[in-house]
Design a protein that fits this description.
transmembrane; membrane; 2 domains
């Protein structure tokens, strides 16, 4: 019995669709300086950032990881469920943040997104083929997912900080920076490095082990220690 395949072009188009939505929300933010718009500026800012980072970028990067490492595995059904659940969380954020900002329903959907990212992370680690186990690109891919998981500490900490110290606390800003730093500089950069190295590996261009170790160690040290620039 043939294993059903997934049309990743549709996933790519969806990611680009979120990019367009983020761009349109960005245009709305610019129009605030010209026109009087009957919505709350801060709410649109929240919607824009969430759709750009979690819709466009996250969806594009997870689709790439699936395409490069898992598309030949018999795990399409599970991936469809993860993808569908992720879409529910993204659409929930899209239709709640512009109208209520950070409130009950937007927080519920953004929290569910964290669980969707945990589900994908488990899925990737569990099903990645053994043939990639010693490749440099997979080390970057796994590191990227570790940074994705690490970054989620920031959103979880925000709730406790808001209830105890308030939004004016330095810890509130630190939690947001922690999240964004490891999301941008950890998750995103490491996935792009994994994609680049995967392409090289397919072309039989393998980095010398010593060079790879230096690059891998240097990037990881840079990601971790540049976080402390904010504190200093």
């Amino acid at each position: 019995m043939a294993v059903p395949t997934i049309n990743l072009k549709t996933h790519t188009k969806l990611a680009l669709g979120y990019f367009v939505l983020a761009a349109l929300l960005g245009c709305v933010l610019r129009f605030f300086r010209v026109f009087e718009i009957p919505v709350t500026y801060k709410f649109i800012v929240h919607a824009h950032s969430h759709i750009a980072l979690l819709g466009w970028v996250y969806l594009a990067l997870t689709t790439l990881l699936y395409r490069l490492y898992l598309s030949n595995e018999k795990v399409h059904k599970t991936y469809r469920r993860i993808f569908g659940f992720t879409q529910i969380t993204l659409l929930g954020m899209l239709f709640t943040f512009p109208f209520q900002g950070y409130a009950v329903f937007s927080i519920i959907f953004s929290t569910l997104f964290l669980f969707a990212s945990y589900w994908f992370s488990w899925f990737f680690f569990k099903h990645v083929p053994l043939e990639y186990s010693k490749t440099p690109s997979l080390k970057f891919a796994k590191s990227a997912i570790i940074y994705l998981l690490l970054s989620s500490i920031g959103p979880w900490a925000l709730g406790a900080i808001m209830n105890t110290l308030g939004a004016t606390s330095i810890w509130y800003r630190l939690a947001i920076y922690f999240y964004l730093h490891f999301l941008y500089n950890g998750w995103m950069i490491m996935v792009l490095m994994a994609v680049f190295l995967h392409i090289l590996e397919k072309q039989r261009h393998i980095l010398p082990q010593r060079s790879f170790n230096r690059i891998f160690l240097g990037l990881n040290l840079g990601i971790v220690f540049t976080f402390f620039l904010f504190i200093s």
